[in-house]
Amino acid sequence: MRVLILGARAPACLEWARAFSQAGWTVTVADSLAQPLSRFSRAAEHFVRLPEPRHDPEAWIEALAGVIRQQAIDLLLPTCEEVFYLAHGLERLRPLCRVFTSDFELLHRLHHKGDFAAMTQGWDVAAPPTRVLHDPAALQALAAEHDTLVFKPAYSRFASQTLIRPSPAQLAKVRPSSDAPWVAQRFVPGQEYCSFSVLVDGQLRAHSSYQPRYRVGRGSGIYFHSCAPAPIRAFLEQFGRATGYTGQVGFDFIEDQQGRFHVLECNPRATSGVHLFDDQRVQLVAALGSEADAALEATLEPRMIALAMLLLAAPQRALSRTFWHDYQQARDVIVQDGDRGPLTAQLLSLSEIIGRALTRRCGLLAASTADIEWNGQPLGAPRR
Prior knowledge:
Radius of gyration: 20 Å
CATH architecture of the largest domain: 3-Layer(aba) Sandwich
Number of helices: 14
Shape: globular
Mean pLDDT: 94
Distance between the termini: 26 Å
Largest sheet: 8 strands, mixed
Number of strands: 17
CATH class of the largest domain: Alpha Beta
Number of domains: 3
């Protein structure tokens, strides 16, 4: 069996490549970057460089179709935001192999933070009250409530633009529009949680929950403290029944001071919780199959991106016993026995992203997804 895994820059792709390799599959990884992380893993037998999906979605779909034919691919697995472009081209690709994603319309509803919040109303775990802002007047109407709200673009990632209880000066810089809407969500203090799950036709096949104990800025976690809150698991079961979702999906939650859980937003793609299955990789691949008796449960041991911990978290916590204890307790998800190529690959990938940040005049986080992210722009009619 042959699998093509997209988003080779992402640690999640590396995890899946190792899982499929251990399960006996032939693994090809693909990306529009030239030096992505997973290219240098022993788990990947082939690497394919693709066009940038955001720049030319149709050319990207055609390139994928060519790879599927040439390598006789059986399964196409997305990991990052290229999933939106993939879902948009499903009619073109589904006759060629199994494509592990839901349809574009459902992904769009989940990706839009306002639409997703509306979807959950009436559920046992629902989003806090959320309003969609399409113009500056709608934003100005909430100015008096600024210290009780969280503002963020309806299409966004990494919390890079999120404003938590902003000052009037911060809020004055926000310019929502019909093409770039924002949302205002009631601020809920409490404990943050994240989840990662795999579903097939709405059935929960694998599930993990974790606390991102250390982060890059406000968004991307680099240390994943595994846990198993029952309300999060119940939410995923309800989500599956309500949507019939197929694919990987992550959610962000908050547990308030009364112990109630609220879901904040949805990421309809792979998230860092996939690393919590690295001790049962063959079973994780099997979870994608046509039948399963019960959902696969994640390890309760922590995982981390060790290089990021040392470079980004350690300098501020060099004298913290708690930090170094946490570091010693966790397993690195990038460098593992028998597969040390990704160690230097991290630096190669970072240097390429730095180059893109300079040429595109944006920050590192923005540069890391600029070519694959989807922000609601029209994609046009896909080729058939």
